[in-house]
Design goal:
Layout: H1 2-19, H2 26-32, E1 41-47, H3 54-71, E2 74-75, E3 78-86, H4 93-105, E4 111-114, H5 118-131, E5 135-137, H6 145-148, E6 152-154, H7 159-172, E7 177-183, H8 186-201, E8 205-212, H9 220-228, E9 233-237, H10 241-255, E10 261-265, H11 274-277, E11 285-288, H12 297-310, H13 318-337, H14 343-350, E12 354-357, E13 360-364, E14 371-383, E15 386-398
Parallel strand pairs: 1-3, 1-4, 4-5, 5-6, 7-8, 7-9, 9-10, 10-11
Antiparallel strand pairs: 2-3, 11-14, 12-13, 13-14, 14-15
Helix pairs in contact: 1-4, 3-13, 4-5, 7-8, 9-10, 13-14
This protein binds P-hydroxybenzoic acid.
The site of P-hydroxybenzoic acid has 11 residues, from loops.
């Protein structure tokens, strides 16, 4: 069924292109074919906007809207129109696939920006390849995704980039033994594998690796078993939001007085979750690609605009930056192609792109379409009664070690 719809779409597209070759021929060609050079570009946006992870979808959308408020709604003279759909969070790969199809066929989306969760991105990969539509992954962090479609790139991070950096840091900083606890699905398995590699290559020993259900809210049995193993540190990944608040609160309580350090990927202690975590996030060591203390003009501009809109004390989730940068990448690429959106031209222009992001410098590796960016090592602190992730080491221009 899905295949035949895409086959029909391909025919429709061929038909469309047969009568509008200018769509492939750059800005000059638009006028020749009777198409306005400033015809809108539709960006299909797929985010979790309902269910347990609805707040995450809201953050990406906030970033996209903020970018347009700061930079206008046009790129290369064309209006950039966002058509937003709700994939309801993880475990809804079929829905994400259907929405991708609907956005390409019915809404004529030229680019898809979205996919918070790996299974949803995975389910859409084949469609994007078939329709030759670029897909910019707004969050999903499993390394293999960019190898599942030549039309995928990523504006987030890979779990392997983060966990490998943290594993190496731990081994080099006096931690001899570790116990891992990750959510039992693709990004969790990447996090476990690459933390273990970085840590054991540096001389560390893994005592045991446990995996927890994706949306688990109860971590005490896992923490108890880890404490009994007496590691120097526990390394953990879980996918943010209420799940991670539950994990950090339970870990904070159980680990108190044990001397066991807690190391996590930065989504677990997203800046905007810190108020709900309170004291429990103090001293948690994390690795990530964004926190509010990035000291650059680009981040100052971003924070000023965010706070002008949401209040002087507002703290953005890193997800806001990913949504904001997703549109920055689309605008910059459209400027490069002169407004052309056909998949091949767009992907060719996107490879090697550089962004001056609030997170720091970003490069899209032309060989892998994978993001190259700084990874920051942070410690949870309470400053003036407010929880912060304070950066104490920066690893510059980290590539995905899995490629
Ligand atoms: C993913 O599904 O790839 C994913 C989701 C949430 C995260 C990180 C990765 O915080």
């Amino acid at each position: 069924m899905a295949r035949s719809i895409i086959a029909a779409a391909t025919i429709q597209r061929r038909h469309f292109l047969a009568f509008a070759p200018a769509a492939l021929a750059g800005a000059a060609g638009f006028a020749k074919a009777g198409l306005a050079a400033d015809a809108p570009v539709t960006v299909g946006v797929i985010l979790p906007l309902s269910g347990a992870f609805a707040d995450q979808g809201g953050h990406y959308e906030t970033g996209m809207r903020l970018f347009q408020e700061m930079n206008g709604t046009k790129a290369a003279g064309r209006e950039v129109r966002l058509v937003i759909r709700d994939d309801q969070g993880p475990g809804s790969g079929d829905l994400a696939r259907r929405l991708t199809q609907e956005l390409i066929l019915r809404e004529r989306a030229s680019i898809i920006l979205g996919y918070s969760f790996t299974p949803n991105a995975m389910s859409a990969a084949g469609l994007l390849t078939e329709a030759k539509v670029p897909g910019i992954i707004v969050n999903a962090a499993t390394s293999v995704l960019t190898q599942r479609s030549d039309y995928f790139t990523r504006i987030s991070v890979t779990m392997s980039q983060v966990a490998h950096s943290l594993g190496k840091w731990a081994a080099a900083n006096g931690i001899r033994t570790a116990y891992t606890i990750v959510s039992d699905y693709a990004p969790g398995l990447d996090a476990e594998k690459w933390f273990v590699k970085g840590f054991t290559d540096g001389g560390g020993t893994i005592l045991r690796s446990d995996r927890t259900p994706l949306a688990a809210m109860e971590y005490v049995p896992f923490l108890q078993r880890a404490i009994e193993a007496k590691p120097d540190a526990i390394f953990a990944f879980n996918p943010g939001g209420d799940v991670s608040i539950a994990f950090i609160k339970q870990a904070g309580e159980r680990l108190k007085g044990t001397g066991i350090k807690l190391l996590v990927t930065g989504d677990v202690v997203d800046d905007n979750l810190l108020p709900a975590m309170g004291e429990a996030a103090r001293d948690v060591i994390s690795a990530w690609h964004y926190q509010t203390d990035v000291d650059t003009p680009a981040n100052k501009r971003f924070l000023a605009a965010f706070r002008a809109k949401f209040g002087a004390a507002a703290v953005p989730s890193y997800r806001v930056v990913q949504g904001y940068d997703g549109l920055a990448l689309i605008y910059q690429t459209l400027e490069k192609t002169g407004g052309r959106t056909d998949g091949e031209a767009f992907m060719a222009a996107l490879k090697g792109a550089r962004l001056d992001s609030p997170r720091g410098p970003v490069l899209i590796d032309p060989a892998t379409r994978e993001i190259v960016e700084n990874i920051y090592i942070r410690r949870g602190e309470i400053a003036n009664g407010v929880g912060v992730n304070a950066t104490f080491a920066t690893i510059e221009a980290v590539r995905d070690p899995a490629k």
